[in-house]
Amino acid sequence: MASYKYFNVTFPKEYVAHVETNRPDKLNSYFEPMWLELREVFDKLSESPDARAIVFSGAGDRAFCSGLDVKAAAEGAIIGPKDKSFDAARIATQIRRYVLGFQDCISSLERCEKPVIAAVHGIAYGLAIDLCTATDIRVCAKDTAFSAKEVDIGIAADIGTLNRLPKVVGNLGWVKEVALSARVFGAEEALRVGFVNAVYDTKEQTVTKAVELASLIATKSPVAVQGTKNILNFSRDHPVKDSLHYTAVWNSAALQTKDISAALLSGMEKRVPRFDKL
After folding, report:
1. Do 164 and 256 fall within a single domain?
2. Per-residue pLDDT of the chain (278 residues; tens, 9 = 90+)
3. Alpha carbons 149 and 164: distance in angstroms, whole number
4. What pTM did the predictor assign?
């Protein structure tokens, strides 16, 4: 992997990548060069045969991500082009392109072929919720403070929270409450509604447990794991009939893998299987 300005990328276990947002002095708040680089990181890992599962966390003790860097955002396209000679249609076109590009960067976590586990701690506001909902599995430290903060800065969340969070927790009333009020909710509430899978005592323990889970996933057939993520995401967004058909088409190719015989044989021989890179 190349080195990056705003992210640390390491491999703490075989086939496990750890992506860490590295702007702790600004509470890991994001501005445009960061989300563009985020997409670059995850697009690269998606294709890397050396990564089979990914942990995503934030550097420092205080925040996973405090949201947008408001000062930087106020100077950018989020409030529209500075040339006021543009008419409304042209301003709207530029803002739409900007938002769609931003959405695509955050969607790179969901689009990534490899499972992504968010290890969350401390402040997790605004964009942090967008990032978390784009991951596959979320765990957090007990000190985590979540908030869908966008209404507090005068906008409706437009990078994924309102689109993905209802599907993650399956409770539209709760989502409306936290999105409309921007109130802070903690780790135990996040666990109760199903937003996170587990809560741990410290950030260090949270990251360690996320790496352990990623390492377990990485021992499985990459053909099976990547197919499972793809089919689950497709099924979330389509009727059962359509997703069953999609699964059949997918597995018409995937079932030809030699990983199946390798997995069955290792099970009979009571040993951990080894799978070729994908």
Report:
1. no
2. 779 999 999 999 999 999 999 999 999 999 999 999 999 999 999 999 999 999 999 999 999 999 999 877 666 656 656 667 788 898 888 889 999 999 999 999 999 999 999 999 999 999 999 999 999 999 999 999 999 999 998 999 999 999 999 999 999 999 999 999 999 999 999 999 999 999 999 999 999 999 999 999 999 999 999 999 999 999 999 999 999 999 999 999 999 999 999 999 888 888 888 999 99
3. 16
4. 0.94
- Tell me the CA distances in angstroms from 222 to 6, 32, 49, 70, one per residue in order: 28, 33, 9, 40
Q: Both tokens of residue 38?
A: 């985020």
Q: Note down the domain range covering 165.
A: 7-218
Select from 182, 199, 218 the last residue of a domain.
Answer: 218
Q: What residues contact residue 72 under an 8 Å CB cut-off, 6+ apart?
A: 31, 32
- What's the CA gap between 25 and 9, in Å, rounded? 18
Tokens coding 234: 């497709």
Count of C-beta atoms within a 10 Å radius of residue 224: 15
CA-based nearest residue to 227, from 247, 245, 213 = 247
Asked if residue 44 belongs to a domain, the reply is yes
Instruction: Identify whether residues 242 and 126 lie together within a single domain.
Output: no
